[in-house]
Design goal:
By secondary structure, the protein is an alpha+beta fold. Helices cover 30% and strands 33% of the residues. A hairpin with a 3-residue loop joins strand 5 and strand 6.
């Protein structure tokens, strides 16, 4: 069984690692295109400038906004392609979002995706981060299934909020 919920662990060096596993009902080459074509990336994640080669520049500009229509401060990420093995591995090392890794494995006509984000962040931001990646991976699946592009100025905040509340409650230490 594939987990759709994210997992979290704090690493010994103080960084947090968020991990998701998803089985996507599309062939690996189709999923790879959704992860590497800037037009497709914007449909489910962020506006992307991507030099797809080891060491190539990466800039992701999140387009979702708060209730007042303002972009979130610090949401953009700039970095480089740290590892690249088409169509199985894509990894970015970024300033604001840490190390972002997408690992793909063909599973018949489907693809097994493992996404990992490893970064320094305050403990109180963990549930927010996990919920954010959860909805972005949901958006990826919707893009692959029926071509649904996220309307970023009107993105479904309520979906994020449901996941945030659930993750926050499950990650709260028991005293």
């Amino acid at each position: 069984m594939t987990l759709t919920d994210g997992t979290h662990q704090q690493l010994g060096d103080g960084r947090h690692q968020v991990r998701f596993e998803r089985r996507l009902s599309h062939p690996i080459d189709r999923v790879w295109a959704a992860l590497t074509d800037p037009d497709e990336i914007e449909a489910w994640l962020a506006r992307a400038e991507l030099d797809l080669r080891p060491g190539g520049r990466v800039h992701l500009m999140w387009l979702n906004t708060d209730e007042d229509g303002n972009r979130y401060e610090g949401a953009d990420a700039t970095g480089h392609v740290a590892r690249l093995d088409p169509p199985n591995l894509l990894e970015y090392d970024t300033d604001n979002h840490g190390m972002l890794s997408w690992e793909l494995r063909a599973d018949g006509d489907a693809t097994q995706l493992t996404f990992t984000a490893t970064l320094h962040m305050p403990d109180e931001h963990v549930a927010m981060n996990v919920a954010g990646w959860h909805v972005h991976l949901d958006f990826l699946e919707e893009w692959l299934v029926d071509g649904t592009r996220v309307d970023w100025p009107n993105w479904p905040r309520e979906r994020w909020q449901v996941h945030h509340d659930r993750y926050e409650s499950s990650m709260r230490p028991i005293s």
